[in-house]
RING-type E3 ubiquitin transferase (Eleusine coracana subsp. coracana), 455 residues
Amino acid sequence: MAKPTPAEEAAALRRRLRRLVAAVAAGSADAEAFDEAADALAALREAEVGPRKDHGAVVGGGGKASSEAAVPAQFLCPISSEIMRDPVVLASGQTYDRRFIQEWLNAGNRTCPQTQQVLSNTILIPNHLVRSMISQWCQENGITLPPVENQEDDLLTNNERKTFSKLFDRIASSSNLSEQREAIKDLRLLTKCNSSLRAAIGEKPDSISQMISVVSDPELEHNEEVVEDMVTSILNLSIHESNKKIIGEDPLAIPFLIRALQSGTMEARSNAAAAIFSLSALNSNKAKIGELGAMKPLVDLLENGSMIAKKDAASAIFNLCMLHDNKSRATKSGVIDVTLKAISEDSLVDESLAILALLSSDHETVEEIGETGGVSTMLQIIKEDQCKRNKENAAAVLFSICMYDRRKLREVAEDEKLSGSLALLAQNGTSRARRKAAGILEKLKRIMIHTHHSC
C-alpha cells in the first residue's frame, strides 16, 4: 500500500480532531479525549506543509510567532471565522465563540446559525476540551489571544447612571400620564440598545417594583402599549445575568409577567414568555415561577399564540420543566395534548418533542402520553422524520412508555414487525437514540420469549 502523502495525513488528522470535538458536543468524551486531541494536534503540526487557507484561517503571531500558522478549522467560530476565545456548545451540538453566539441569541434568534435547527433551549455549555486544545495550539505557535471578555463587565458610566436616574424619576414621580408613557417607552428602547445601562438596576433594585406599581395604576394598566413596553423592558433587563436574581426576587415582577401572559397583546404575551424563559435560568426562579401559576398561561400561549409566541412559550416551558415539580404542573395544564396536537399538525415538532422527552421521566406524564395516542405519534416520527434529534427524542419518549406500560409493547411490536424502524434506529441513530431503541427491542424480545414459554 502506498504511503499517504503529507496532505492526506493532515486531512486524516483533521477528521480525527473533528470527531473529538463532536464527541464533546454529544457529551460522550471521556478523560482520555484531551490526551488524544493533544497527540492529534502534535501530529497535525508535523504533517502541515505550510499555511493552507482551504483548511483554516492564517493567523500571524501578534509579533511573537516566528512564522504564520494555519489555524485548524474546528478552532474557528462559524460566525466570526476567528479563533474562539470562549468556545461554548449550543443545544444543537455546534460550538461557537460565546460572545458571537450570545449576540445572535440576544437578537431574538432561536435557531442554530449553522444547522438552522430550532433550539430546545439557549443554554450555552463551556466546551473545555476545545478551549484547552486552542490554548495549547496558540501557545505552541506563539500566538497570544486577547483575554476572555466578562459579560458582567459592563461598566456603568456616570452619564448612564444619570440617564437611568432621570428616566426612573420620569416614570415613578411624574404626575403627567403622557410623560410616564413616554418614559416607559424610552426605558424599553434604552435597555434594548445599551447593555451597560441594564446594570443600573443593580444599584437600585427596588426600582423594578416602583415602576411596575406605576404601570399597575388603574389609569395605565389598561393601556396595552404601556404594558407591552414594561414587559419588554423587563425582558431586556433580564438579559444581564446579575439582574435575573434581582427581578426574580422582586415581589411584583413575576406576577406582572404572568398577568401579561394572560391578558396582554400578542407581543406582550410573547415577550413575557421570553422574559420568563430568561429568568428561569436560575433554579430559584424556576420554582417561584411555577408556584405563582405561570404554566397554564404558557401552555395556552403554546397552543394559541403566533408562531414567535409559541416558540417563546415552548422555550419557557422546557426550561421550567427542568425542575421536577414543574413537570406535574405542565401536565396538569394540558401540555401533553397541546404538544401531541402540534406534532400531528407538523407545527413546532422539534420543540414539542423536546418537551415530551423531558417530561417522560415522570410516571404520571408518561401514562398520559401513552393514553392520548403518543405511541403511534412517536413511531411515526421515528419512521418518517429526517431530523436525528427528533428521532432521538421520540425514542426516549417511546422507551419510557414501554417501561411504565407493558400494554403498549404489543402496539410497538406489531409496528416493528412491519417497519423494522427501531432496529434501523438502533444501528444508525444518535448514541442516545441507539440506546433507547436497543432498550425497547430488548423488552420486546423478553416479552416474546415469555409468551413462547407460556404457550
